[in-house]
Design brief:
There is one protein chain. The protein is an alpha/beta fold and about 290 residues long. About 45% of the residues lie in helices and about 15% in strands. The chain has 10 helices and 8 strands. Helix 1 packs parallel to helix 2, helix 4 crosses helix 5 and helix 8 crosses helix 10. The chain is globular and about 50 Å long. The two termini are about 20 Å apart. The structure holds manganese (II) ion. Manganese (II) ion binds next to loops.
């Protein structure tokens, strides 16, 4: 199990300098892995990311949320094609920096929709994602779709919903669970992990307000017990946002209006220790 940190803890600018400093800060905070935001994959400097990862001895992954103009869960085929192109670029960047996973809101735009997804929109989304999986397979990148709350997607909002979508796609997609979203939509922090089972390939650890772990209402204890029960061994990545660090597209899409922390180094070191402590404690359950 690799414990990681989302790049937005460190900076909102992912040019070569931002990539380097975020990677070094992730290492300094004690993590094993950094997740790079790939909101603009065409301009992401994958060669610099690869060098930074090598120098720091870290693993890397990539994530993004699609926008309205690249919404693959649309009936507008121009948007679907633009989304497909963007996702292909994102897979290619992850492969270029030697990453193992592409994840995030890949199944739709990351925004509040005014109506449920239509069957045609879901078909378009599932078809594109199955092509993205094929492209990832060819370059050794595993692709997972993130289960997010109702204000950020209308395709599915629970682990079981994601399983239905994946069955419909017929593709070897992974499920990406996030404790922040589970806390809003799921009936507990335990059953969804068991329901998703070995389809679970990526995990985000976020607090109910997306700030310091342990200061909100997420039941982390139960969630880590569930990961232990299913012998989950994929990435477990801390995700937190504050208005102190701004990436214009992502910050607005997620509604990050409040300043919940200023010091990313303190936040990151705390999260690394919190997650490792929870994983260690859950392991002792088998002794009881
Ligand atoms: Mn997340």
């Amino acid at each position: 199990m690799r414990i990681g940190c989302h790049g937005l803890v460190w900076t909102g600018v992912f040019d070569a300098k931002g990539i380097r400093s975020a990677t070094e800060s992730t290492r300094a905070a004690g993590f094993d892995l950094i997740e790079y935001p790939l909101m603009s994959p065409s301009t992401f400097d994958a060669r610099e990311a690869r060098r930074a990862l090598d120098d720091c001895g870290l693993a890397g992954t990539g994530s993004l949320g699609l926008g309205p103009e690249t919404d693959v869960a649309s009936e507008d085929l121009a948007r679907v094609r633009a989304g497909r192109d963007l996702l292909f670029q994102a897979v290619d960047r992850v492969a270029e920096f030697g990453g193992s996973h592409l994840c995030g809101v890949l199944q739709s735009a990351m925004r509040k929709y005014g109506a449920p997804a239509t069957p045609a929109a879901v078909d378009n989304s599932a078809k594109v994602l199955s092509e993205v999986v094929d492209r990832g397979r060819a370059s050794g990148v595993s692709v997972s779709v993130e289960v997010v709350n109702r204000y950020e997607s209308n395709v599915f909002n629970t682990g079981r919903g994601a399983l239905e979508y994946i069955a419909h796609s017929g593709a070897d997609l992974g499920v990406h669970l996030d404790t922040y979203h589970m806390n809003i939509e799921e009936s507990s922090m335990f059953e969804p992990v068991l329901d998703v089972g070995d389809r679970l390939r990526y995990v985000h650890i976020g607090e109910s307000h997306r700030g310091y772990l342990g200061t909100g209402s997420v039941d982390f204890k139960t969630f880590f017990h569930a990961l232990h029960r299913t012998a989950y061994d994929g990435p477990v990545v801390f995700e937190s946002f504050s208005s102190a660090v701004v990436e214009p597209t992502l910050t607005s899409a997620l509604g990050i209006w409040r300043n919940l922390w200023d010091d990313g180094a303190d936040l990151g070191a705390h999260a690394n220790s919190f997650i490792r402590g929870a994983v260690t404690a859950a392991r002792t359950i088998s002794l009881h």
